[in-house]
Each structure stands twice: as structure tokens, then as C-alpha cells.
Amino acid sequence: MLYVIGLGLADERDVSTKGLEIIRRAERVYLESYTAVLLVDQQQLEAYYGRSVILADREMVESQSDEILADAHRIDVAFLVVGDPFSATTHTDLALRCRQHDPPIPTRTLPNASILTAVGATGLSLYNFGQTVSMVFFTDDWKPDSFYDRIAENNTLGLHTLVLLDIKVKEPDLKALARGKIIYEPPRFMSVAQCASQMVEVEETRQQSVCGKEKLAIGVARLGSDGERIVAGTLQELSDADLGPPLHSLVLCGKRMHEMEWEYAREFAIDREGFDRIWKRDYAGKV
Amino acid sequence: MLYVIGLGLADERDVSTKGLEIIRRAERVYLESYTAVLLVDQQQLEAYYGRSVILADREMVESQSDEILADAHRIDVAFLVVGDPFSATTHTDLALRCRQHDPPIPTRTLPNASILTAVGATGLSLYNFGQTVSMVFFTDDWKPDSFYDRIAENNTLGLHTLVLLDIKVKEPDLKALARGKIIYEPPRFMSVAQCASQMVEVEETRQQSVCGKEKLAIGVARLGSDGERIVAGTLQELSDADLGPPLHSLVLCGKRMHEMEWEYAREFAIDREGFDRIWKRDYAGKV
């Protein structure tokens, strides 16, 4: 059996008690290590689980899944995923391979907390979210802006948009690679500030009033942990906000944002007066 | 401290190990018992947690929250919620009351699995969902159809819609009430079949091709448990499908449904040939 086990968002103790039992008895334990990370290191995880854990990077999951699935039709293999297993399509892909395996490998998924719902901590109603988008690190010559069209679509319905922020782990250093050396760059995690400023940058080009400086947004960091932080403000304000260590995410507020959502979210505002003024002027159900 | 602790979806062992520690040491433990239920009974929960649990019905949470919050500025109170704490706005409301309490009561939320993400088990990408809607039990003279407008909005963008199904627990028997007696009706949980047939019924009145008989949908039951069941088909087919005991939910597929989603979902089809034919004709990215 392949068990795909969600670990939740913060630390080693967010696993379910059922998940922990399976991890402790499984033959092999893998940890998917490239779409998200916990806020604690591998040693702390291994100490608590009482198991050593094999890190599964993108290459292993996408190209060497045979190794992960070896003998899983007769032994138990645990594949651990930070957050909820279905938040990344890669894991659907792994499940498809189990079905197509000869003999087929039975799979079982243990759901857990995901940023997609934990973001309710902002006070925004999960019923008022449209499609989720991703934001990647811009470079000088690569600034993909398809997120802009998705947010524009959500905006037509007045819905909030959750923006998931890029992380780069185990990225090869391209200059070293050109010299024939494989050196990995230090991991990078996009901050709320960088996301907000990239959004404003794209707005300046596209100019459809989708994510300009005065749009209201809420930045979140380390949700579900003791050090959780939530900051609300305009995209301009968030471009300068420091929410501390990763992981960060951002929600762009939709105009349907109703009074109870506002009442809750304004407590997190950098400038409460400004937040209230803009909410009353541009939001408050004005779709 | 008020701890709002998500219990996950299936049974007593879906709580996180961190959550379990808090439950075991808290002064009082409440279980929210009206927006969702676990698939196991209260005794099983209490036996595993090693604590007796106070059932908190809607009236207690909405009108007698003082009782729940009593002394919580100096002792630990655990408030357990099936699924994820933020999936119901009631809990945001409770957190607001903690802020306004004199002295303020610190709160901490432990996220957990939610149907909003566990629905990824269908193979549909969580990035392709629009707003979530609710479906209530129709009666002869009350058939609220605002869900129809929300789904129509999602449809314009080709997005999937998660439909959460009504549950009725501790509803007073109105006939007995008229005779001055309070008798509670047995709990009722909407099935995928009933939801699908209500959707088709409303389509017959509204006729905007939002949720007619030939629309593709996926019914899910008891997600995250051993007895999880997933069935795909037209709304017509799902109107006759029996997915067994609660809880059920339904996803109406959006036209943006891409090939990898289809490939995964078709495995659950009641009539695979028919499913493929309709997907190719009406879906496959045809927004």
C-alpha cells in the first residue's frame, strides 16, 4: 500500500495520530521536499517520528517514481507531503502510476490542513474565494503574468484570490552548471512584500485595475504555527511589510468582502483608518 | 486560552498529535455538533481522547457562548470542530467574541483536513475550483435556489463547484412543538442523489444550462475514511446513485476540466463510455 500522508502546515506534531502510526510501521518513509516545507528541520521530524526519512526531490518523484513504488503492492510505503496531499498535482500523478502499476498498487490518502483553508484565519470567508493562483519569482527577462488574468476573472465575481508564493529548493546554480559543476543555490522563499510588489509591477503594464497599489490584501506567514502572523493593507503597504521567516502567502480581497469579514480583517491592518476608508469606498459588496 | 481544534474528516484518529495533547490537558472540552459530524460516535471519541466531551449545539454556540468562554482568559478550553475550524463562519464569530471579551481571551487555531481540499481525491485540481456553495433540503414550499447563480458564475469561468450538502441535527419536530412538546427529529444528512436531483429540478425552472441532466459531476462520500467512495457521472446518473452512509458532497465539473483531471476522474465513472463522450463533446477546456 502506498500511503500519501498530509503533514499539515507547521511542525512535526501536525501529523494526525493515524498518520503517525502508519509512518512508524511503514517499510520506507519518503518526504516530498520541493513544493512546500515544514517550519522545522528534517532531524526534528525524524526524532519525533522515530524513523529516518528519505527526501524526495522533484527529480525523484517525477522521474524515479519506480524507486518510491518498489514492492509497494506487498509492503507499506509512506509518502509524506507538507500540507494536504492534493494541493499539488504531482501527487495525483503518483496515484495514477500506482493504478497503472503491474500489479496495481493500492493507495490511501490521509488529508490534512492546507493553506487553502488555513487562510480562513484572516477572517475572510472560504466561501468567497475564487480560483487559487501561483506567483513565481520574476527575473529580469521572465515575468510570467498569467496570474493577472485569473485574478481578473475572480474580480469580475467579486471573489477573493489566494496567491501561493514560489519556493526554490535545490535549484542548480546556472553559472556553475555552465562550467560543468552541479552546485545548488541556497533555498529561496518568496515573501509577501515581493509578491505584492510584483503584482503592482504587472498592474503598471496591464492597467486593468486588477492589482494596483490601492487594492486591499492580506499577507499571512507561518499559518498554524505559534509564530503565525497576519498583516492587512494595500498592496503598496504590503510591498514594504516584513512578515519574517517563510512560508508566506497572500490574499487579494474581492469586492464582495462583507462586513463581518472586514470587521475581522481590519484588526490586522497596518493602517486601520486607511483600510476602513478604502474598504468603504471600493469594497463592501460593490461588485 | 481558547483552542479551536480541527478534528479532520473521518474518525477520532484524524486529530493532530498536537491537538490531542491540548485536548488531554484542557480544563473543558466542547465538540461543535451541528455543522458537521465525524463518522464515529461520541463515546468512541471520548474513549480515545480520554476525556468527556460537552456537545455544543447551535444554540449553545450562538447564544450561550459565555458558558464556553467562562474563565478562558486564565484556563485552557478546547473547542473541537469537525474538519477545519475555518470552514464555518460561526467559529470566526467565536474568535471575535474572544477579542471583545474583558479581559480579552487569547485564541489559537489548529487547522486540519477539510472537505474543501480533501475533494482533490476526485482528481480535480484544487486550482480549478470557483466559489463553494451549499445545498439545503428542499421542502414543498421552500426551494432556495441562490446556489444556481453562484454555479452559473463559476461556469462562466469554466471552474468546478464544490456543493456542500445540508445536515439536520437536533431539529425540533414542528408538529410536536405546536402541541407544546419539544421532540427532536432524527438526524438527516443529504445524499449525493438528492442533491443531484434538486439541481436538475432547479435547472428545469431556470433553464440557463447550469446544472441540467447531462452535466458531469462527481459525488463523494466519507472522504478520508477507509470506506471512502467516489462516483462520477451525469447529474441524471448521480440522481440514482447510492453512495451509502453520510457524509456526502458533490462537485459539479467546470468546462476547463483538463485532460489529466478527466483521466483520473473517469476511473470513477458509472458509465465510462458515456462520461468520455460528454467530456469530449462539452468539456475538455471548452470555456
From TrEMBL, chains A, B:
Keywords: Methyltransferase, S-adenosyl-L-methionine, Transferase. Its EC number is 2.1.1.314. InterPro entries: 4pyrrol_Mease, 4pyrrol_Methylase_sf, 4pyrrole_Mease_sub1, 4pyrrole_Mease_sub2, Dphthn_synthase. Residues 1-238 form the Tetrapyrrole methylase domain. Pathway: Protein modification; peptidyl-diphthamide biosynthesis. S-adenosyl-L-methionine binds at L9, D84, S114, I115, L165, L223, H248. One of its GO terms (molecular function) is diphthine methyl ester synthase activity. Belongs to the diphthine synthase family. NCBIfam families: dph5 (TIGR00522). This is diphthine methyl ester synthase. It comes from Zasmidium cellare ATCC 36951. The lineage of its organism: Eukaryota, Fungi, Dikarya, Ascomycota, Pezizomycotina.
